Batch of 4 targets.
Target 1
Amino acid sequence: MTDKLFQLTTEARNQQTQNLDQLPTEQILKIMNDEDKKVAFAVEEALPQVAKAVELVANALQNGGRLFYFGAGTSGRLGILDAVECPPTFGTAPELVQGVIAGGSSALLEAIEGAEDLPELGRQDVHKYGVSGKDVVLGIAASGRTPYVIGALAEAKERGAKTISLSCNPQAKVSEGVDVAIHVVVGPEVVTGSTRLKAATAQKMVLNMISTVSMIRLGKVYGNLMVNVQATNQKLRERVKRIVMEATGISYAEAERLAEQAGGDARVAILMQKTGLPRAQAVELLTRHGGRIRDAIESENKNR
């Protein structure tokens, strides 16, 4: 695989930045900004594949499965970043979306580059995390050739899990045999081979899309309000009140009262306001509809 490394788009030399070290600071920043502007357009080209990935993930989560991100280095850290944001944003259990990085948790703070070269380590981690046929495994590799990720995807497929690849090269080894292959080709980096730049930005954007839209499909967003947000600090407690105000049109004081009665749960507070139900009945109604607040409101209104 080494002899083909420099054939990769992500390893090519950017013709616009060959004299980078001789340029003034502001010009370097302008070049970086111009290159970053290309990322969103590259992601746009991949939207049909991203949509297929969302459908796989949402279906799995709806039916008792989990989403796993497997990656090495920057790619692995991005997967973990997206995973750990799901519980506070969408009120999910920590095990629903999980990020796994080659080399384990210590690789978050210190680069363990050799770990990515071992496909068997990827297989071992899939076994360690108990991946099953109900789950989805998304392998992230900017180069598209990371052995650890290839091993993880192969093991996941053998276990019957759905598999998705995310890479930044048009021809990617990690894409072979997966259910959905996402290629976001952002071109050569400003600093040659530094995929923590455009490639990482593209990966972050796609992961944002997959997790966010999957959660929307699961009913964890009402309108464009993140009603499942967990009120675990002062800022988020204020956000809950604001969400209740936006969803119902009531005053701050009334939203504060309802949020307190609802135990800080924006969904319950909104249901109480829109249906007139007391907290216990609002909670029961929400539970009956799988946490989908819009379905709960429409059901209660039909029964009146």
Target 2
Amino acid sequence: MLAWAPTIVWLNGTHGAGKTTTSALVQQLIQDSRVFDAEKVGETLMDITPRLPWTGNFQDWPPWPPLVVEAARRVLDCTGGTPVMPMAVLVEEYRREIGAGLAERAIPVRHFVLHADQDTLRGRIKGDTVLGPSPFRLKHLEPYAEAARTWLHGEAEVVDTTHLTPAQAALQIAEAVKS
């Protein structure tokens, strides 16, 4: 186990990049850490009845970014340690709002983007034996590519998972956070 000061380890990237699998492996390498899947915040908003007006993505609802920040803060207050947070955020405004909210609360973040080329991502999504092929996940490939080209890769540490196993990616991330 590696040890360091508590920091949110944010694993960003699109569907098929390996966020969920890698986050569980990173958690095993970081002492006193836990996986905090912030996507569940959005799922909670989806359960409101009557339903909020559908926008196509729960991240577009105004309460989502500040609730992610507040949930992360509360988890840290309750548990301490290092949250490993798999969460795809491909809209620059939302990434900035979440980052600013965490910074205002003096919560340090190491932001990683798990990247793979489009063919690899498409193949992973189509071959997913757990979730199955998903048109929703496939339609996020181009927005990811655009975000990667224009801002996302400039704001994070990029880990190319095209030819890495999830264990190799997790070790690379854990070692980067330690250094």
Target 3
Amino acid sequence: MTRRLIITENITLDGVVENDGTWFDPTDDSEQGRELAEVTREHAAASDGFLVGRTTFEEMREFWPRQVDDGTGVTDHLNRVEKFVVSRSLEDPNWEGTTVLHGGDDLVGQIRELTAREGRDIVLTGSISLAQQLLAAGTVDELRLFVFPVVLGTGRCLFPEGTTLRDLTLAESRAFSGGVVLLRYTR
């Protein structure tokens, strides 16, 4: 079975995915945080690949491996899966199980090669520019949007002006106790 490429993003009602630290906390231990951690574990169980750009990779590499008693399961997942980081400058990823994809003109071809291999899902999170590029290239099989009931009015959006996606089918909608809604769309 070939792999699917899935984009998972935390997003505000006005489309912002850039986290300024005020609206999303991946270590939230509230009831909603525990619910979101549970669905994240469900999604993680179906994947064996993690794809990010360099900035997101470096942020995650500095944060997740240092978590002790991580109840979300993210640390264990990230340490276990094959990680792919797109970067033209990163030489030593310094995180076991990481492959650097040097991108360039053939990035989409490199991603298609990864998804053509046997395996489970490859999940991209954060990495706004990379997500936008892969959406535009038509290589994304599913969008998982955790929509937070927040309007920021500013910040980087997943869908910049001019983005067109018309071939989406709603696969799931699930509401959580604190008002977050998961919307899963397939292409």
Target 4
Amino acid sequence: MWKPTSLRTMSFPLLGLILMGLTGCSGDHPDTDPLEQVLSSEDPRIRNVMDDPAPYEVQIRYTQIDRKGDSLVFRDFDYQVDKEQYFYPASTVKFPIAVMAIEKLNQLENLNLNTRFYVEGDTLETTFGKEVMKIFAVSDNAASNRLLEFLGQDAINAGFKTKNTGPARFSHRLSV
């Protein structure tokens, strides 16, 4: 229970390697698929997965944002994306939880990002702003779970539905 006070489908190291490789892929070569480029790496951690991808059930969707004058052009690149195959979203669920928590705070007069709170059974007293920051800075599962307690699972699922996220449903806390 939330109380105010004083008014992994892919291993993180592998995901980090892929993301570092993608950030180095610029829009200089418009016909180059950045996923293909990164996933063909000879790095043994990537090679291990790419040589036998089936057990890892890897699905990647990468959106590259290119500037064309004053406009932005979004280009999607996919690896093994299949809408018929269930994909566990792992840490991607943290983003909407953080956004929904900020939206809720904006609707409440007595609470804001600097309000200190703790979750019953937890020893940490923190602020909403610190927990949102930890979600984005270090992908902190405990921070996400604290905001889940503030929002409630039903409210998160209702938020997914009203925001037309497709067939999304939040069903459990993240492990810590």
